[in-house]
Amino acid sequence: MGQKLHSLMETKRLVYLVAVVFAVFMMFQYLEFPYGDVISSLFSANSPQKLKNESFPPKDSSQIPQIVKNITHFHGSNYTKPVSIPSILLPPSISPSSPTTLNTTTQSDPKIDIDTSKSFHDFDKSSSANEGPQVNGSNDHGTMGEVVTISEMREMLGHNRASFRSMKPRWSSAVDQELLDAKFQIENAPFIENDLTLDPSLYVNVSRFKRSYELMEKTLKVYIYKEGEKPIFHQPQAVLKGIYASEGWFMKHMKASKHFVTKKPKEAHLFYLPFSSRMLEEKLYVVDSHTHKNLIQYLKKYLDLISGRYSFWNRTSGSDHFLVACHDWAPSETKKYMNNCIRAMCNSDVKNEGFELGKDVALPETTIQSSKNPLKQFGGQPPSKRSTLAFFAGRMHGDLRPILLHHWENKDPEIKIFKKLPKSKNNKNYIEYMKTSKFCICAKGYEVNSPRVVEAIFYGCVPVIISDNFAPPFFEVLNWESFAVFLKEKDVPNLKNILVSISDSRYLVMQERVKLVQQHFLWHVKPVKYDIFHMILHSIWYNRVFRVNPR
Ligand SMILES: *[C@@H]1O[C@H](CO)[C@@H](O)[C@H](O)[C@H]1NC(C)=O
Ligand SMILES: *[C@@H]1O[C@H](CO)[C@@H](O)[C@H](O)[C@H]1NC(C)=O
Ligand SMILES: *[C@@H]1O[C@H](CO)[C@@H](O)[C@H](O)[C@H]1NC(C)=O
Ligand SMILES: *[C@@H]1O[C@H](CO)[C@@H](O)[C@H](O)[C@H]1NC(C)=O
Ligand SMILES: *[C@@H]1O[C@H](CO)[C@@H](O)[C@H](O)[C@H]1NC(C)=O
Ligand SMILES: *[C@@H]1O[C@H](CO)[C@@H](O)[C@H](O)[C@H]1NC(C)=O
Ligand SMILES: *[C@@H]1O[C@H](CO)[C@@H](O)[C@H](O)[C@H]1NC(C)=O
């Protein structure tokens, strides 16, 4: 009896001790993270995680205790998500700077300049033991050289077009012949020297683009599956704001299109899988689960449903099906079961997750501030009133931005490179810089894509894209180098030299072209010819046409 009592007392003491330790940790957490995100996320797995702070990567990664490194280790395609380990489980002393406490995942208020913070693999790159910053860019994917330049991407695209065809359909269909005819007509497009609406310098081949666009308007029919439950499927209005808005706006316009949508799947050239990658993450990702396998399974089940119910998927193994997804995880979520589909994705890394130029489509990432008025704040100053040479502001996501800051923060009065700017109403300061800078730096974050590319164009600023292996939007048709500057990540120290080497007259030409290309990057409440909706659809159509392989 006495012994029992004794051990009971022991247990009580132990419980007490644990409680005290826990309380102390909680207090630390609370002091360090005034918003208490970590704590709340611990207790409410389904409440959207708020933005947390990021001091990333740690200045001296060798100081991160081994346990953190091991936790954050990422193997190729195994998605043990390294983020969101409750920092409460780690000694507070390592919490603030360790990558595990990164402010990640969903933004509850995706209004303004918030970057995607979604990567699985970039954590690994920046936190693996003491190899300072990598300037050769991402490299653990694929077998190509270190960096694929824009001209090499051109070659890849040409090569892919020439060599790859989608699988021969299991049985023939009249639509295959229509696509083949379209291909012939595009390849033999009448030569256009000048066009009132399309400046030839902006396009890879304006004759082909114009012909293809006309044929799309004349021919294309899209079937949208009715299956799929809201809000992940069929609910565009959930994603009309913030940095993922292009998937929401596309879905909204596609569903509403009387012109392109057909109710008869037999006459469809393309089949749309109408889901939102953003809602998929928001609804199904289990905070701290370190995995998105369940998200992949959810999509797999959907495919099983439509391939069981209809014959269309099986006819082409999905190669006439497409998806439009802006979330960073979209490539990895879709690469296994939807790999044959035409995948329009913001995260268009030609060396990652099987992104295939000529099949997949680089979807523009657009920041939408007002879902009522997507053109709010559109435009900027004329070149003479652009007083800042180069501007960047943003969170220290990924391994490149700290390098950019290291070289250029407060180093030169003409170069304004900041961490995230202090909050201002409607993001006023950020937008003001975009409107009054000559060049806007679009430095990759965790992933290659950044909303800055389209933001720069939107505000009339010449984009300077620093993101190795990033395929820019509408790469099939736009001659990006005529209106944007591409810098290799390793050339960050030469940023200023490179920019000042661009003559004033050349700059004026580029800026003029930025203004001319704007029409292709604008969302309208009602779609208009050549706008971003039609351009996205066109790139999907174009890739379908050039891969057609009739029986
Ligand atoms: C998250 O970010 C906010 C500001 O955006 C910061 O105040 C907070 O401390 C951060 N939380 C963590 C866990 O770093
Ligand atoms: C992040 O936290 C650090 C200190 O941990 C602080 O200096 C910095 O201002 C914070 N950044 C943001 C965006 O809140
Ligand atoms: C971390 O992983 C390495 C290699 O896998 C291993 O040698 C080391 O013991 C691990 N460290 C800890 C703390 O688990
Ligand atoms: C993923 O994990 C499985 C089992 O854990 C392992 O067999 C496989 O090799 C891993 N894949 C990669 C790419 O590391
Ligand atoms: C990065 O570049 C350096 C020097 O150019 C080279 O030695 C190294 O192998 C490269 N690393 C990778 C992973 O490509
Ligand atoms: C553009 O395509 C058309 C049709 O294929 C071709 O005749 C023309 O030579 C091409 N122009 C350029 C500049 O490649
Ligand atoms: C399509 O193929 C799958 C797998 O082979 C099969 O289970 C399914 O029944 C097929 N669908 C139709 C409509 O025949």
UniProtKB/TrEMBL annotation:
Pfam families (UniProt xref): Exostosin_GT47
Disordered: annotated span: 95-143
Location of the Exostosin GT47 domain: 217-501
GO cellular component: Golgi membrane
Membrane topology: Single-pass type II membrane protein
Low complexity bias locations: 95-106
Chief place of localization: Golgi
Bias (Basic and acidic residues): 110-125
Bilayer-spanning residue ranges: 14-31
Location within or outside the cell: Golgi apparatus membrane
UniProt xrefs under InterPro entries: Exostosin, Exostosin_GT47
Signal peptide extent: none
Chain intervals with Polar residues compositional bias: 129-141
Keywords on record: Glycosyltransferase, Golgi apparatus, Membrane, Signal-anchor, Transferase, Transmembrane, Transmembrane helix
GO terms of molecular function: glycosyltransferase activity
Family named by the database record: Belongs to the glycosyltransferase 47 family.
Protein name as annotated: Exostosin GT47 domain-containing protein
Organism taxonomic ancestry: Eukaryota, Viridiplantae, Streptophyta, Embryophyta, Tracheophyta
